[in-house]
Amino acid sequence: MGLRLSGGRRLRSPGGEVARPTTARVRQAVMNMFAAELRGCRWLELCGGSGVMACEALRRGAGAVVVVERDRRVAAVARANLASVVAALGAAEGP
User: Fold this and answer.
1) pLDDT tens, position by position, 65-74
2) Looking at the domain assignment, is residue 95 inside a domain?
3) What is the span of the domain harbouring residue 25?
């Protein structure tokens, strides 16, 4: 399954039954609800899967994100997705 951020950027997906990514419609609704608070905020995503919500938050101006995922293989996908978004934004990585 392919994932895309609202701006069109493609992300990796862990696939299979391990993770069920948040649908684009739900992501957009959540981001719209928090639009006024996103700039510079700290975003915590629990049971993060591919990290798509954190990637979306970064793209919309979050200052820092943390994704918690217990499956190491899925967490590796989230790390790759976040690194891709950070590189595209030209953002500096935190400590």
Assistant:
1) 999 999 999 9
2) no
3) 3-89
